Each structure stands twice: as C-alpha cells, then as structure tokens.
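Co-fold these.
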Amino acid sequence: MPKLSTKWIKKSPWVYHVGTGGCNNCDIEILDCLTPRFDVERFGIKLVVSPRHADVLLVSGPVTYHIKSRLQEVYQQVPKPCVVACIGACACSMGIFKDAYSVAGPVDRVIKEIDPNAIFVYVPGCPPKPETMIMALVKALQKI
Amino acid sequence: MNRMSIPEFIIELKKGYSGPLEYQQRSEKRVYIRVPRENIQDIAFVIFRKMGAKFSIASGVDVQKGFEVLYHFTFDRDNFICTVRTLAPRDDPKLDSIASIVPGALWIEREIYEILGVVFTGHPKLKRLVKAEFIGEHEFPFRKDFDQKKFKEKHKLPIPK
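Predicted complex below.
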C-alpha cells in the first residue's frame, strides 16, 4: 500500500454514493450528513460525482440482480486503497429482503467475489443516524 | 373555499358515469368504488378528465377470485382519496389499459404486467420494466402460487436453509 495515498485519505476522504435498490430512507440520511446541520464538509468529507475521484463508497440497499454487475464495475473504478461503507440494515445483511426472489446478497458478499481483500465498515440501523455514519467513517480511516 | 364531500362526489360521479357502481366509504378521507372491468376506461375518463383528480398510483393484489387492480385517485383540493378497484379473473387476466386517458399510468401498468401477469389491452408498449433479465416472461413472483423453492432451483440460485 503506497504511503502517500493513505495520508491523503486520512486528511480528506471523498465519498461516492451508490444506491443498490434501497428504499431511499438511508439515502435521505446520507444527504442529512452533507447539509448544514451536520456539515461533514468541515472535516473534508466531500461528495463527488465520479467513482474515480472517490476514496469511500457509501452503499445503501440490498444488492438486486440488476445492480450487482454495476456495483462491481463501480468498485473496480475506485482507486485503491478504498473503504466500502455499508449504510443501513439492508446493505449489511439484506434486512427484511433476505431470501427474496430478486436479491443477490449483501454488499460485502458481492464485492468479495471480485476483491477478497476489500475493506468494509458496517453501519446498521433503519435508517442509521448521521452521527453513526460520521463515527463509522472515522473508525474506518483509523484502520487503513 | 368550498370543499366537495364524498357523498357530493358520488352524486357528481353518477351524472357522468351511468354503468354499474358499488361504493363504500371508509372514512372522511377515503372512498372505495368497485366497477366491472368493462367500465374502467369510462370511470377513469370521468374522474381524471372531467373532475380533475390526480392519479396517484395503481396497485395489484392476488385475491381469491383473481387479480385485483386498484387505481388510487387523489383529490388534493377536496382532501380525500378515491380508490377504484376492479377484478381480472384468474383464467383470463385481461383489463383495458387506461394509459390513453391517464399518461401517468404507463409505467405502473407495465410493472403490474410483469410481476403479477395482468395483461393491459390497448397499452402502447407492454413489455418488461424492472424484473431481472434471467427471470422468464411467464414467471410472476407476486402471484400466490409462485413457488420460491422451485424458482431458485430452476435458476440455480442459493437456496435458504
């Protein structure tokens, strides 16, 4: 792992938001983090529009068969090292959609198919609080 | 502002629509209307075009007699919701499409078609919308007789313990 890139991630992690079939509740809470009340941009956490600029992937929702290959493609485009944050109960463990006809698996299982050494952080809750997400990112960046 | 109540709405509705009609008022804000499947286009025309309601959504349910499709119309100014329910029998699941009257119903009718198997005759583009590609055209996951175990065995998916 190159030292320089690790240093930059710790200073200012840029996040990219991937919706993988959630109910939009977690997505709204992610937006809450970015708006002035919590304002994560003061810590340098910034939402970017391309996975090629991102250090952290925020994934919300159980992974459906439709989105499975797209999620893997997005993950491959992110410069490594990167962190995958599973936001919400569905992304962590499929939640109430377990065994449904259209769900391929939780986020970690889908991404481990292409990269067994991926780094994950789990934020359970339906939806998780913005404070929890900020806490999770801090813990994940300490681990890198 | 003069708000229309639900009994007034029923009287107004019967002026424009002359077919058979059965209604049930659940509360001040909710009324259910049951119509035969031949008359669904007529009642959609009266409610949507003449009375100016908003088309909220349609939903499909598998009930004992067949497939019930519910069209939810919202009267925002008068503060109530009118649900038109109609039944497609199990051996002949066909309904007239209301997409020519209500353009917003295009996609929801496609969705009901692919996961419940109700065929909307007269729909301009009745093809699949959200179902995963590997699921067959005649597999309808929202039907009561859909066997999850057989489905997963057929497509070689992991079977839950």
